[in-house]
Amino acid sequence: MTRIRPVRGDITEQTVDAVVNAANSSLLGGGGVDGAIHRRGGPEILAECRALRASRYGRGLPTGRAVATTAGRLPARWVIHTVGPVFTPDEDRSELLASCHRESLRVADELGARTVAFPAVSTGVYGWPLEDAARIAVGTVRAARTAVEEVRFVLFDERAYQAFAGQLR
Ligand code: ADP
Predict the structure, then answer these.
(1) I want to staple 40 with a disulfide (CB 3.0 to 4.6 A). Which of 12, 60, 80, 101 is the partner?
(2) How crowded is residue 157: how many other Cβ atoms within 10 Å of its Cβ?
(3) Is the pTM of this model over 0.70?
(4) Taking the domains of the chain in order of start, what are their residue ranges?
């Protein structure tokens, strides 16, 4: 059984085996969680991302997929980069958001990670409504078959915290 809990805080300060990054498909950095992870984790993470772009992911990491790098100077061993879908009311992209969580846990299992911190993927610049994102994220992690012992959803603000805590009650 995987323990799932919401935590209010900054994902770059979590002492866990793996931190999930809400990356963009370029893997070359961005704002929000991505910016914070690269700033605090240092240049080693970006160097590995560039190497991935030069090898396996020449066209970038597709939406819904996940890939790991070092966590550099973060208090974690790995960063698992995943690309959330951009929200649009014109098309149901829920399956891609679910896939981010499933694929991140699959990569965590490959690494042997036992504790994993997730941000609220897609709820920042990608515009996904919080309540719906929380429902999909929590539902997908609950249904996943994984050896990960603890999933921590790390929420930056009170509204996001309440949305995830509500799904976990
Ligand atoms: P996306 O592009 O997938 O929407 P963002 O990084 O823009 O990703 O935002 C995802 C969520 O992470 C937002 O709810 C945002 O408030 C939150 N967030 C931003 N910085 C941090 C941080 N350092 N730790 C945890 N959550 C963060």
Answers:
(1) 12
(2) 10
(3) yes
(4) 3-168
Tens-digit pLDDT profile for residues 46-82: 999 999 999 999 999 999 999 999 999 999 999 999 9
Q: Which of 11, 16, 33 to mutate to test the pocket of ligand 1 (most atoms within 8 A of CB)?
A: 33
Summarize pLDDT for 35-55 with one digit per residue, the tens. Answer: 999 999 999 999 999 999 999
- Which tokens belong to 19? 């931190």
- Interval between CA 55 and ligand 1 midpoint (Å): 28
Contact 153, 104 (CB under 8 A): no
Is 109 one of the annotated active-site residues of the chain? no
Residues with CB under 6 Å of ligand 1 are: 10-12, 22, 32-34, 36, 84, 119-126, 154, 156, 160
